[in-house]
Every structure is written in structure tokens, then in C-alpha cells.
TrEMBL record:
Protein's name according to its UniProt entry: ABC transporter ATP-binding protein
NCBIfam families noted in UniProt: oligo_HPY
GO MF, one annotated term: ATP binding
SMART domains: AAA
Signal sequence interval, chain numbering: none
Coiled-coil ranges per UniProt: none
InterPro entries noted in UniProt: AAA+_ATPase, ABC_transp_ATP-bind, ABC_transporter-like_ATP-bd, ABC_transporter-like_CS, Oligopep_ABC_C, P-loop_NTPase
Domain ABC transporter: 9-260
Length: 326
């Protein structure tokens, strides 16, 4: 339980290293995710925000078991993930934790109809008897706003727009009644005009159907719009996290402040210059020292080069890793 809410996914001190060379020495690895911890509660959205290469997708892939964790613990519904899978099977875990990808075209098979895409997981997971499959496919299409349902079901992916295809991907994910959806930049390839519709659909699924979302994005403005909690990542590290309003309205980490300063606001004259130094984004190694943001940080002090900052609690649900918060 977390503030009286049921915790669905609990991640503690997660680490994921990748081999970058052929040698087996320690420095032949890079650390894509370092010491990441969070709880995802029932019917709640957690936004993971950060620029390219910050480890967002790697974290999600570890949660789906595409990758094994290098270190750390993951619990699903209060049970260590390995125990859960041993008891319930890999297929059941895959049913409960669904993923939606950035590119809705690449994730749909061009030779199959929309009906096939949604019926297939229903068959694999034995959700309903064959005689009820059509009815459930139509209900799911209705739920994600793809009407008229019979005509849509007969179409092929290339006959739909990007936004409609992403709705199919969502229908396919929710067809198996999952507990969690890991949405990896689900709107970034869509036209701006249809992005809000997809976010609102996901918000409905969260609020009315109790599905928990991990929402991965570059865009801190949509994180604030959609998710109750936000975690800001930089080079594999969570640097600021907590209640989305607190993180976005009273940001204390220089990197969060930088991301927010880049959000265009009406009356502010478009995007502002980013207030960071032009330092390199480091390639983090298992033995790297200091704060990963130090090279770009306008407020870096001496110890930022040598010590990885510990966690400071700023408010009831607001945390930061920074030697010099403001
Ligand atoms: N399979 C892999 N093998 C080796 N390195 C990898 C692998 N997958 C990711 N990486 C590295 O791990 C780091 C984090 O990558 P990841 O894809 O998780 O970033 P991301 O935050 O999702 O970025 P983006 O916003 O561009 O999708 C990157 O430096 C990347 O090069
Ligand atoms: Mg990614």
C-alpha cells in the first residue's frame, strides 16, 4: 500500500547495464538505468520524462522481461516478479503488463485486418469462447472510439490514420484486461491535432477501468496533463520525482527546470533558450562518479563532480537528487 492505494508495480534500486565492447572487463559496460525506484499504484499514471538516451525504454523493457535486470528488485502485486511468474506463468505476466509502442504502424502487421489484431490476443489468452469474439472485438473498437465498428474491423492498418492505428494498438492492449500498460512515447509520432484524443482515451482507461499507466515521454507538458506522478530521468538516473503538480510547478532540479523552460507557453514568445551549459551528455559506466548532470549544470558545485547526490525529500510527495537544489 502507498497512501492507502494498492501498489501494482514496485521497483527498487533497478540497474541495467549493457555491454558496449567485446571485453568482459567492468569498463566494457555502460549503465543505461541506475538505482531507479518507484511505486506504480492501481489506476494511476506515472510519467517517465527525459531526453533521448535517458534509459526510459530500457526501464520499460526490463519491466516486460524483454531484458533481465542487472540489479534491483521488481515486485508485481506484492510478489517478487520471479515468484509471480513461477506461480502464474510468463503468459499470464505478459497479459497483465502490456506495452504500447511509439510507432503504431510498425507494431501492426500490414497483412492482417484490424479484427485479426484484436481477436488474436483474445484467442491466445483464452479470454472468450469463439462465438463471442466478434462481439468483444466490436465492443473494444467502440471503447477506443473507432466507429463504425464493423467497417473498421474489416480494414487493414494502411487504411487507417496514425491516430486510428494507435487506437487499435490500445484496443489490442486492453483486450486482455491488463493491470498495467507501459506506453512508450505513444503520441510522439502522431499529428499534434490527434495527440490530445489519445491522451484523453488513456485517461479514461485509467480513471474508469483502473488500468495503471507508465507513460514514457520527452514532453513534460503532457506528463503534467496526463499523469498523477512524474519522474524526471537524466542519463539513467531519476533526478526529480513525485506528484506531477509539484514536480512541474515547483521544480527544484536544474534539469527539470531546463525541461520546463523549453515548454512553449502562450504569451511567452515560443520556446526559450535552454539555460544549460553545453557540456557533454556522459556515457555512464558502472564505476562513474558524481552527478550525471554536473557537466551541463549551471549550478554545479565541487562535490557534484565526485559524489552521486543522495535523495532529498522536499515535500510529502516530492523528491530530488541534487547537491544544490533551488
Ligand atoms: N540493447 C542495447 N544494447 C546496448 N545499449 C543499449 C541497448 N538498448 C539501449 N541501449 C543504450 O542505453 C541507453 C538508454 O537507451 P533507451 O533506449 O532506454 O533510452 P530512451 O530514454 O528510451 O531514449 P529515446 O527517448 O531516444 O527513446 C542509450 O545510451 C542506449 O544507447
Ligand atoms: Mg525510448
Amino acid at each position: 500500500m502507498n497512501n492507502g492505494q494498492e501498489v501494482i508495480l514496485s521497483v527498487k534500486n533497478l540497474v541495467k547495464d549493457f555491454r558496449v565492447g567485446t571485453s568482459k572487463k567492468k569498463d566494457a559496460y555502460m549503465r543505461a538505468v541506475n538505482d531507479v525506484s518507484f511505486d506504480l499504484c492501481k489506476g494511476e499514471a506515472l510519467a517517465i520524462v527525459g531526453e533521448s538516451g535517458s534509459g526510459k525504454s530500457t526501464g520499460a523493457r526490463v519491466l516486460t522481461r524483454i531484458y533481465d535486470a542487472t540489479d534491483g528488485q521488481i515486485e508485481f502485486k506484492g510478489q517478487p516478479i520471479d515468484d509471480y511468474i513461477e506461480e502464474n506463468g510468463t503468459l499470464e505476466y505478459a497479459r497483465q503488463v502490456q506495452m504500447i509502442f511509439q510507432d503504431p504502424f510498425g507494431s501492426l502487421n500490414p497483412v492482417h485486418t484490424i479484427h485479426h489484431h484484436i481477436a488474436r490476443p483474445l484467442q491466445i489468452h483464452n479470454r472468450v469462447g469463439t462465438e463471442h469474439i466478434d462481439q468483444l472485438v466490436y465492443q473494444l473498437l467502440e471503447l477506443v472510439g473507432l466507429t463504425p465498428v464493423v467497417e473498421t474491423a474489416e480494414k487493414y492498418p494502411h487504411e487507417l490514420s496514425g491516430g486510428q492505428r494507435q487506437r487499435v494498438a490500445i484496443a489490442r492492449a486492453i483486450a486482455v484486461d491488463p493491470e498495467v500498460i507501459l506506453a512508450d512515447e505513444p503520441i510522439s509520432m502522431l499529428d499534434v491535432s490527434v495527440r490530445l484524443g489519445i491522451l484523453n482515451l488513456m485517461a479514461d482507461l485509467k480513471d474508469k477501468h483502473g488500468i495503471s499507466f507508465m507513460y514514457i515521454t520527452h514532453d513534460i507538458a503532457t506528463a503534467r496533463y496526463f499523469a498523477e506522478k512524474t519522474a524526471v530521468m537524466y542519463v539513467g538516473h531519476m533526478v526529480e520525482w513525485g506528484n506531477s503538480d509539484k514536480v512541474t510547478q515547483t521544480p527544484k532540479h536544474p534539469y527539470t527546470q531546463l525541461l520546463l523552460s523549453a515548454v512553449p507557453e502562450p504569451g511567452r514568445g515560443g520556446r526559450r533558450e535552454l539555460g544549460a551549459k553545453k557540456g557533454e551528455i556522459p556515457l555512464w559506466k558502472p564505476d562513474s562518479q558524481g552527478c550525471p548532470f554536473a557537466a551541463r549544470c549551471p549550478r554545479a558545485v565541487e562535490k557534484c563532480q565526485g559524489d552521486f547526490p543522495g535523495i532529498t525529500q522536499l515535500a510529502e510527495d516530492h523528491f530530488i537528487r541534487c547537491h544544490n537544489p533551488q
